[in-house]
Amino acid sequence: QQVTAKKRICIVGAGPAGFYAAQYLLKQLSDCTVDIVEKLPVPFGLVRFGVAPDHPEVKNVINTFTKTAENPRLRFFGNVSLGQDVSLQELRQRYHAVLLTYGADQDRELQLQNEEQKHVISARKFVAWYNGLPGAEQLQPDLSGRDVTIVGQGNVAMDVARMLLSPIDTLKATDTTEYALEALARSQVKRVHLVGRRGPLQAAFTIKELREMLKLPNVTTNWRADDFAGIAEQVEQLQRPRRRLTELMLKSLSEQSKRTATAVDGKQFLPIFLRAPKAISAKEIEFAVTQLQENAAVATDTTECLPADLILRSIGYKSSCADPAINFDPQRGHVRHDQGRVLKEGEGSSVEPGLYVAGWLGTGPTGVILTTMNGAFAVAKTICDDITANAFDTASTKPGFEVANQRIVTWDGWLRIDQHECEAGKAKGKLREKIVDVEQMLRIAGV
Ligand code: FAD
C-alpha cells in the first residue's frame, strides 16, 4: 500500500479500543495513516479471547472493525509485540503519534497462601482456555470434582459459571475450542458457588447474565434467604438497572421457596453474598463472614468453609508494563495519563508529546465494549485536537513501521486465517474452529 500522507499514527493493540480509535482518526483526519501493531497474529483482543462463545451477537462488532481495517489508509501488523519486537522509543521516532491500547493481560490475585496450587486458577486463564488464546490450551483444568467455587461476582465470573453449567449440546455450535468441549463434556461439576464480599445490592453481575443463568436447562439456582434480609424494603429507592436486577433476584428467591425438591441429577448455581476469601486448602476455601459498612465489606470473626474441588479467582484483570519507557503505575495496573495523554514520569501534570493511551490500559479493566468505544473515541478526539493545536511535531517526515527479521501477519494474512477457521468450523457444524497454535496461524497466513 503506497499512501502519501502527512500524519502517521501508530496504535498498539488490535482490540476494541485500538479499532474504535482508528475508525475515529481515519474519519476525522483525511491526511493521516494508521498502523495497528498487534502482539498476536490475529486481531480483536478480548472480543475473540474474552467474550463468551455463547454470546456470538456481542462479537458482531468485528464487522465494524473489519470495515475500518479495509480502509486503504490502515495497515495491520500482526505478530509484532511492543517491548519485544519493537520498542516504544522506535515507534515514537517513526510516527507522529503513538496510541497505546494493549489492554490488560494479567489478573488480580487474592494474596492468600496456597493460591499457586493446581486447583486454584484464574478466571482469566479459564476464559482464555475455552476461547483458544495461544498457550492457554496447556491449562487442563481439573473438572473431575463436584464443586467449583468462583471468587468474584462480576460478569466474567458469570460467563465462567455458565460455561461450566451449560448443557454441552448448546456449546457445540459455538466457537468454543474443541479441546475445551471435550473436557466440558467429561466434566463432573455439579455445583458452582459464586461468592462475593458484599451484598445483593452491590452484586457486580448484570441482569442479562442473571437471566441467562436462571433459564439454563437442568440447572437450579439456590439463593440464601439470609443474604436478602432487609433487601426487599430498599428496592423502591434504587436506580432503575439496580432495581430491576434486585427484583429479579428476589423473584427467583421467592420461586425457590415454592419449589418442592431439587432435581437429583440437576446441576446447581449457588450465589453467595457477604463472604470474603480467607484461606485455601485442598478441597475447600474458607471465607470470613462480612458486614456492610457504608457499602464496604468488613470481615467479622465468624467464618464459613465452602467445598471447592476447583477454585476460580475472578476478581479483575490488570495491565502489564510492556516497555520500560512507559509511565506505568504498578499499584493500579495502568498507564498514568490525563484524559488519554500519557504523563511524563515524575513530572506532575506535564505530558509526553504525541503519546496517548486508551481502553483498559488507561481506564483499568472496567466496562463493556461500548464503554471502551466511547473512551477510545474521546482519546482519538484529543489526538485530533492536539494535532490542530500543533501540540506535537507533525511537520517532519516519519517513516512508519519497518519490517526487521519478523514474520508479520498483514490484514490479508488474517483473512486467510479467518477463512480457514470458518471452513474448519463449518465442517463440524460450528461457527468457527479457532487455531490456537501460533506457528500454524503464521503458516496459514503465508508468512
Ligand atoms: P483488549 O480487548 O484486551 O485488546 C488489547 C489488544 O492488545 C489485544 O489484541 C492484545 O493481544 C494486544 N496486545 C497486548 N500486549 C501487546 C503488546 N505488547 N504489543 C502489541 N499488542 C499487544 N464486553 C461486552 O460488551 N460484552 C461482553 O460480553 C464482554 N465479555 C467479556 C468477557 C471477558 C472474559 C472479559 C475479560 C471482558 C469482556 N467484555 C465484554 C469487555 C470487553 O472485552 C472490553 O471492554 C474490551 O475488550 C477492552 O478493549 P481493549 O482494546 O482495551 O483491550
UniProtKB/TrEMBL annotation:
Cofactor: FAD
EC number(s) recorded for this UniProt protein: 1.18.1.6
Places the protein is found: Mitochondrion
Pathway: Steroid metabolism; cholesterol metabolism
Gene Ontology CC terms, in alphabetical order: mitochondrion
Positions with a binding annotation for FAD: A17, E38, L46, L82, W360, G367, V368, I369
EC class of the enzyme, as a word: oxidoreductase
UniProt protein name: NADPH:adrenodoxin oxidoreductase, mitochondrial
Organism expressing this protein natively: Drosophila mojavensis (Fruit fly)
